[in-house]
Amino acid sequence: MARTTVITTTVAIAAENFGFSTETITVPAGAEVTIEFDNRDDGVPHNVAVYTDSSAADAIFVGEVVTGPTRTTYTLTAPETPGNYFFRCDVHPAMHGAFIVT
Asked: What is the pTM of this model?
């Protein structure tokens, strides 16, 4: 019987002064991804959401909105197809970046 190995990866990202600490998140295809999210903006709601592209029409994952300062952990499965995807804060769409699947 074949064993299936699940790749896991952890990414840390912070929101501060209405911006993310990184513009690029890179993960392996099909990986179980843990996002350690640190919202450092006092009294401001943020989240991390991943979409197929910048239109944000097709969600891959939408993290719970949390009001800072606080930390939360999101878990999602990366797409199986390598490529360039998109992440953003749904509350503040100007906060965004590339979610790259390798």
From this structure: 0.94
